[in-house]
Amino acid sequence: MPDTDSSLHPHIYRAISKRGWYDVIGQAVTTAAFEYRSGEQEISVVKTVNCTTERCDGRLNTCFGEFILETDRVRELGLRVEDDDPDMQAYWENHASILGIPVNPDTEEEAQRAEDLRTFLARIARLHYDRRGRFEQPTT
């Protein structure tokens, strides 16, 4: 897969498919947003986003909004950001993947590296769009 061109796409976006991916009280992205789902080996992102309350650019049935990450900052963590392969049947020109987080770690060191990378991604991610008004700071 080709590298995502950060001059064309300085930001990438991760659709929020679960409310637990964002800590409303702390106003912070959680590491759960960067855990693999069963069978995954990459973190799915889109390169441009124009979501509305009616339509999710991440093509998800359940989407609460998007996080934004700087493409180059993700790469500074030692991860790759790559476009979909145009030769694949499921090719989508707006889709990219974050690759390099250990999948099914065999050692404690690999498991720690995976957790550290998820933590670093959560720290550099920020809320871009709150599609359903679920992440507003509660008033006391």
Provide structural commentary.
This protein has one domain (11-130). 16% of the residues lie in helices and 24% in strands. The chain has 2 helices and 8 strands; from the N terminus they run βββββαββαβ. The protein has helices at 71-76, 108-124, and strands spanning 11-15, 22-23, 28-29, 43-46, 65-70, 80-83, 95-99, 126-130. Strands 1-5-8 form a 3-stranded antiparallel β-sheet. A 3-stranded antiparallel β-sheet has the order 4-7-6. A two-stranded antiparallel sheet has the order 2-3. Strand 2 (22-23) and strand 3 (28-29) form a beta hairpin.
First-residue to last-residue Cα separation: 49 Å
Q: How many domains comprise the coordinates?
A: 1
Which series of helices and strands comes N to C?
EEEEEHEEHE
Q: Give the structural class.
A: alpha+beta
What brief labels describe this structure?
single chain, 140 residues, alpha+beta, 3-stranded antiparallel β-sheet, 2 helices
